[in-house]
Fold these 4 entries.
Entry 1:
Amino acid sequence: MALIPSPKPYSLQIHKLPQYTYIDALRWLPHISTFTRHILLATYDADSSTSSLQTLISSPSQTIPSVALQASVSAPSRIASLKVSPSQLAPSKPLIAAATFSGSVLFYSADLINESLNFEFSVPDKGFHSGAVSGIDLSENGSECVSVGEDGRVNLVSLSGKRDFRRVFDSSGLVSYSSVKWASPVEFVTGAFGFGLHWWDQRKAGGPVALFKNNWTGGIASGIVHSIDIHPSRKHTCLAGGSSGIVVAWDIRWPKQPVMLSGVGAGDAANSLVESDIWEVQYDNYTHSSKIINSSSSRVLPAMICSEDGILAVIEQGEEPVELLAEPCAINSFDIDRQNPSDVICSLEWESIAILTRP
C-alpha cells in the first residue's frame, strides 16, 4: 500500500458498528423522516452459507448512533451488486435490485413505513446470464434495469408490463463485463476486463458506439473496471475505478483523452493514493471546489473511492487526495447520502459498517 499523507481539513465523526455477518454491499435508502435513516445491507453468513437483504434503522439525532434491524429477507444466492431507485410516486417504497452470483436479478420493494421488504419478481436464471451477474443499474425513472456479466452478455430488464428482458449484446465470451452505469434514458456505459470502457446507445444497434481500451498503467499492471459513476449534470463523462488503484475520467466528447486521477504508473499526472483494487467510485457532491466552479466543464468533479487496502478517500483533479478512513481490512462498499451528502456509510471486511458524518 502506497499512501500520500494528506491533512484532513475538517474533523469527521466516525462510528463503527459490528454486524456479525459479511457485508457484500450497502446503500442508503430515501429519507422519510428527519428523525430516522434507513440503510440497506446485502449480507452473507459464511457459517450457514446463506445470504439476505436487511434494512436497518438509525437515529442521526443520537450522540453515538446505533442501528436496529427493521426487516430481513433471505436471498437464494449471494449478492454481487445492489442498486436502489427511489420511487417518485411513493418515496417510502423504493425499488431495490439485487444481482446474484447464480445468474439472476431479484427485485424488491422496501416499505419503510410498515417496516417490510417485499419480493416483487426475479429474472429467471435460464437464458439470462451464464454465471454471475457482475453489474446492474436501475434507470433514473425506474423503468429499466441493465445487467452485464462475465459471460459477455448485456441485457435490459423491463420493470413494467410483462417484466421480461431482451438481449442487447452477446460477445459469446470474447469480452467479459464487470460493471455498468446509465448515462441517459437510452445510453449506458459498461466496464470490462482489460480496463475496457464501452459506451452504448440504444438508438444505434449492433454494439457500443464508443470504445476505450488503453494501457493506463504503462505495462506495469492490468486488470478490471470494478465501478462506474456518471454525474447527473455531466452525463457525457464517466468515472471508472478498478485494479491497481486506477481511477480515470472518460469524456465521450474527447474519447481518446482520458484523465487519470489515480493509479499505478500515473507518474506526475495523478496522485496515486492506493495500489490495490478500487472497489467503488462515486462523484462526491459534498466536496465543493472553487477551481471547479470557476472552470470549464472539462475539469473532473471530486470523487470518493474505497479500496481493497482499506482506504476511503476523496480525490480531485490536480489536488492532494483527502483520506477519510484507513482500516486494516478492505472497505468493500460505500454510499453517499443523496439527500444529505455529508453522511457516508461504508462496509468493512471485518463484518462491520462505519457511519461518517462530515461537518
Entry 2:
Amino acid sequence: MSTLEVTFVSADRTVWSGHAAQVVVPAADGSMGILPRMQPTLAILERGAVRIIGEDGEVTERAVDGGFVSMDRDVVTIAVDHADRATAAR
C-alpha cells in the first residue's frame, strides 16, 4: 500500500510530520483530498481545516487561515502561518 510522506509546518514549528494514507486541505476552490500516486499539485489554502489520516487511521485536524500545499511523488508539504488544534485523534 502506498502512503504519503507529509510535512506540515507553520511559521514557528513543525505541526505534523510522518506517513499518511490521505490528506484533506481547504483549497481556494474547495476541499481537496490528496491520495498516494496523484498528479503533482500546488494549491493555495483558505481558512478551514487540514485533516491528516495516518497510516493507522488516526486523524489529526488543525484549523488554518491560509497557506499552500504541494504534492509531488507522494511527498506532501503543507505550509501555513499558524495552525490551531481543531480536533485530535479518533
Entry 3:
Amino acid sequence: MTDDTGADVDIDVDVDRWRDELESKRREKDEFFADHPQSPIPPEDREAFDGLEYFDPDPDYRVSATVEVHDDPEPVPMETTADREMRYLRVVTLSFELDPADEDLASGEFELAGYQQEGAREQALFVPFRDKTTGQQTYRGGRYMELEVDRSLETGDEIVLDFNLAYSPFCAYSETFDCPLPPEENWLEVVIPAGERYEE
C-alpha cells in the first residue's frame, strides 16, 4: 500500500484518519509559505500571510481512476503564464467517475491526461486541469495534481486521484514564476469543489 497519490491504494479508507492527514499536510504547506526562503509569497507580503484557502475535505472527490498507458506518447505543447511554450508527453489517460453526495453537483464519467515533461526521468505524473471553479473560486490559470507512482503503470491499473490535493501553481502568488497552463483536453466541464481555493 502506498500513500494518497500512489498506485495500488484501496479507495475505501478511514475517513477520519484521511481527513486528519490532509489537514496536517495543509498546515505544513502554510508553514512553508509563511516562513521558507523558497516560498512563492513575496517577502514583503509574508507577514500578512495567514494561510491558504481550501475547500473543506470531501472524500467524494477522492476517486479511483483507471489507467490507459500510451506506449508511444504524443508530445503536447503547453502554453505558459509567461507566453512561452513547454513540451510534455501525454503518457497516460485517467478515467474516473464522480458521484458527489450533493445532488446539486454534477456526476458522471470523466477523463484527464497525465503528463511527463519531455526528456525528464522522474516517474511522477503531472495532471494540470481546469474545472468550473477556475477563475471564480480557484486560480484563473488552473490547478495541478502530481501523482507519485512506485512502479511502471500498465493499462487497466487503478490509482487514486484525490482532488483534495489539487493546488494552485506558484505563479498564482508571484509573477516571477512561469507555469504551464492546462491544455484544453484537461478542461473539465464540472465543478470540483475540492483542494486549494484562490480568489483574486
Entry 4:
Amino acid sequence: MQIYWTKINRIIEETAEVKTYLLDCPEDFIWEEGSHTHFALEGFNAGDKPNRSLIRHMSISTLPHENLIGITTRIRENCSEFKAILRNLEVGNEVAIFKTHSNVPLKRENKNVYLLSSGVGLATFRPLVLDYFERADNVNQIHSLNIDSSKDFLFTNIFKSAPDKNFTSQFVDNRKDYYEEVKNLATDKDGLFYIVGSDEFLVQNIEVLYEQGIKPEQIMLDKHEKALPDFLSIVETL
C-alpha cells in the first residue's frame, strides 16, 4: 500500500461548519470522478498498528485537472478527535492519503441521472457534475437533489439549474419535501439513481425508490462492492 504524504495548499471556508482542504497533488497520484480516499493525520502510523481514530474515509471533491485534491467536510463545535485536530491544521501542514478508489463514476448509458445527497455528501457529486459539464456524451440529463437542514447549501456556484446543459439542481431543508421529490423523480423507471449520505439516509432512499418500482441495478452507492448487498437486499423485506 502506497501512502502519499502531502501538504495542505489552501483551506476554503464553504459555510460556518464546512471546510474544503485543498491538498497538493503528488506527481503519480491519480483519481477519477466519484473517488474516495483514506485521509489520515500525522501520527496515524506511528505505532505498531494504525491509529484508526486519525483516519477517515473521505470523498474527493475535485477533478484531476484542477491540480489539487479537495477534501470537503463538516466540522461541528462538538466533534470527534479527528475533526478537532483537522480544524486546527493550517496551510503547509502535512496529511496522508491512501487507498483511493471510485465506487460512483458517472455512467454514460444514454439515461437520465439523478444525484440524491444529504448535506456535505454533495461533495461527492461535485466532480461528477463538472465532468458532465465538460463532456455530456451519453448522458441525457442530470438532476441533483440535496437536503440540508442547516440551509447553508454547498457549491451553489456549480449546483444551479442550467437548462441549456440539461442540468437541474434542487435544495430542500426538510425531509417531507425531500422524499416527495424523490418519489417524483422515481417516476422515471429507466433512470440511474446515485445516493450519498449516512447509512440511514441510504436505506431510507432505497426503500422509497424500491416502493416506486426502481430496481437495485439502477441504484449507485458510494460503498465498496462487498458492502452493497447489505443495503440493496432490503428489497427482500418490502
